[in-house]
Structure formats: structure tokens, C-alpha cells
């Protein structure tokens, strides 16, 4: 099987670098100038500076060429996934499509595997998710991810194809659990960043992570996910990483909210749209998701940090 990574942002580039250890990889950029710049510099200086591209990576802006590969990794932001799939749906017919994004679609409340299934029904959909910073993968540091695919046999094949010396994949057929874990942890990371940015301390962050995890489980179980998926890399694992590291863009957005600073709107922060999508979904499903709702209030400036904190602390007392 051959592989192409579609989307030459930080994560797509890091995955291409790791996969190039074991096989030829095509890395597609939608922007011919960006592709040419990567070819000339042998590095993605715009999105992942400091990590040379190995020779086994072929950079292209020709999607027809990239989709000659059997396995296509879609490393674009969640809110762009549908447009990429719809615009080029003929090229994706019958392919194995592995979404590498973490989020819930704002307009539909769907996760990445669901969006693939809806837009390219002939494709076989999978998801690669879990705790990982692009910089760590590109540097060859040990990393473990979840590979989720509803087709158990294909999941085994993909696990073998996409595992490298330092990138270890665990597999599951629970795509709903993997989708929701990866999406919801970003919302909790914004909340945790806000708490730390506002100087509320590590105990408050631990409380938010734990109650945030309860919220993640509540929604995931209501959507038919397995509890053990949420307890794995794609849920608990990624929650831990993203809520505690300043390498996380979601956490950094939260920090800026807590400190009252501005934040560059061009940075990919999946948790912002996802918080709104999940808040609406929770309302429709009659699920109590107070932290998610509070994050939406902070993002929309309808709540101050002080009001948000007071509101969460004043909730009725209950059993854990
Ligand atoms: N960066 C990380 O450490 C990391 C780790 C794990 C998962 N992810 C996930 O990977 C996904 C992508 O994040 P990233 O860090 O690579 O973001 P990024 O901002 O670095 O790059 C996004 C890329 O998507 C491309 N893109 C945007 N819209 C597009 C479109 N319509 N068609 C084609 N390409 C388009 C952009 O040109 C850019 O190259 C996110 O869902 C993120 O949660 C990122
Ligand atoms: O930079 P973030 O917040 O998108 O986090 C990157 C990864 O999702 C961490 O696993």
C-alpha cells in the first residue's frame, strides 16, 4: 500500500516525516507556491520550521497525482474537511481515507469519520488521533496514537502500514469514541488554559480536567462510544497532554483568555468551533455539559472569567 498526506500544515508534515522512514510518501499542499517553497528548502518553513524533509517525501500541489496512493491521510482542519472532500470527491472514490483532524463540524455536529462517510460513501474511513505534538513526531520522539476504523481487518492493515519506529499505533473499531475524545479534549484545554492564565492555580486545573473528562464521557456514551476508548490515548491521554502544555494552541488560546490578551486568529484552534458545535449538540441531546457551555460563553465574550468561575462553583452539589 502507498500513502499520501493531504494538507501540509504542521501535523501533516510531521506525519509525512515519520512515515517516510518506512515508505515513500507524497505530501500535498493546495498552494503551488507553498509546495515549491518546500521543495526548494526541503523543509516546511511556513508551518514546521527546523525539521528537514527526508528524500522519501515527494511534495506536490497536484491532487490527482497525490491521490494515486491507496491510503490518504487528511491532515486539514476539521471545519475544512467537508469542503476538501466535496470539492474533489471523484478523486477520493473507493480510497482509504484516514482523517487526522480533531473536532466536531459546526454546521452538522458530525465528527471526521462521519463527515467522510457522508461525503464519500464509497471510501473506507478511519481516524488517527491521540496525544501528539507535530514537533515531537517530526523530531522522532516516542509517541503513541489511536487508529480507529470500523472495519476491523482494514484497521489491522492500517496499523501496520502507519506504525513507525517511534510512532506506535493502538487500534480500535470505536470510531465514535475516538472522534469525541479528540474533539472534546480541545474544549477542555481552552478551559484549563483560561484557569491557569487567570492565576487560579493547578488545583483548579485538576478539577476542570477531571470534571471535563466526566463531560467527555457523558457525551461519548450517549453517542454510543465505549468507555474504554475515552480512557485511552484518544481521550484521557490527549486530555492530559493538551491541558498541560504550552505547545498546545487550544491551551494557549485559553491562557490568552485568562490573561485578557489578544490571540492570533489565523492559528488553527480546533476547540473554538468544536465548543460551539458540542454545546448545541448537548442541548439537542439534553446532556448537561457545563464546562463546554462556559467555554462558549468565554469565547463569545458573554461571560467574564470571574462570572464563569462563579457560575461553575455555584452549581448544585451532587455525587461524584
Ligand atoms: N499540530 C499538531 O501538533 C497536531 C497534532 C495532532 C493533531 N493535529 C490536528 O491536525 C489538524 C491540522 O492541524 P495542523 O496543526 O496541521 O494545522 P496547521 O494550521 O498547521 O495546518 C493546516 C493546513 O491545512 C491546510 N488547509 C486549510 N484549509 C484547506 C483546504 N480547504 N484545502 C486544503 N488544505 C487546507 C492549510 O493550508 C494548512 O497547510 C487539526 O485538526 C489538529 O487538531 C495537530
Ligand atoms: O495544538 P493543539 O491544541 O491543536 O494540540 C495538538 C494536539 O492535538 C495534541 O495532541
From TrEMBL:
Catalytic residues, chain numbering: 185
Binding site for NAD(+): 7-12, 134, 249
Gene Ontology molecular function, alphabetical: glycerol-3-phosphate dehydrogenase (NAD+) activity; glycerol-3-phosphate dehydrogenase (NADP+) activity; NAD binding
Any one of the GO BP annotations: phospholipid biosynthetic process
Residue span(s) of domain Glycerol-3-phosphate dehydrogenase NAD-dependent N-terminal: 3-153
Binding residues for NADPH: 11, 30, 102, 134, 249, 270
Catalytic activity: sn-glycerol 3-phosphate + NAD(+) = dihydroxyacetone phosphate + NADH + H(+); sn-glycerol 3-phosphate + NADP(+) = dihydroxyacetone phosphate + NADPH + H(+)
Binding sites annotated in the UniProt record for substrate: 102, 249-250
EC class of the enzyme, as a word: oxidoreductase
Subcellular location: Cytoplasm
Claim: Transmembrane helix is one of the keywords in the record: no
Keywords: Cytoplasm, Lipid biosynthesis, Lipid metabolism, NAD, NADP, Nucleotide-binding, Oxidoreductase, Phospholipid biosynthesis, Phospholipid metabolism
Residues reported to bind sn-glycerol 3-phosphate: 102, 130, 132, 185, 238, 248-250
Matching Pfam families: NAD_Gly3P_dh_C, NAD_Gly3P_dh_N
UniProt EC number: 1.1.1.94
Function: Catalyzes the reduction of the glycolytic intermediate dihydroxyacetone phosphate (DHAP) to sn-glycerol 3-phosphate (G3P), the key precursor for phospholipid synthesis.
Entry similarity comment: Belongs to the NAD-dependent glycerol-3-phosphate dehydrogenase family.
PANTHER family: GLYCEROL-3-PHOSPHATE DEHYDROGENASE, GLYCEROL-3-PHOSPHATE DEHYDROGENASE [NAD(+)] 2, CHLOROPLASTIC
Name the UniProt record assigns to this protein: Glycerol-3-phosphate dehydrogenase [NAD(P)+]
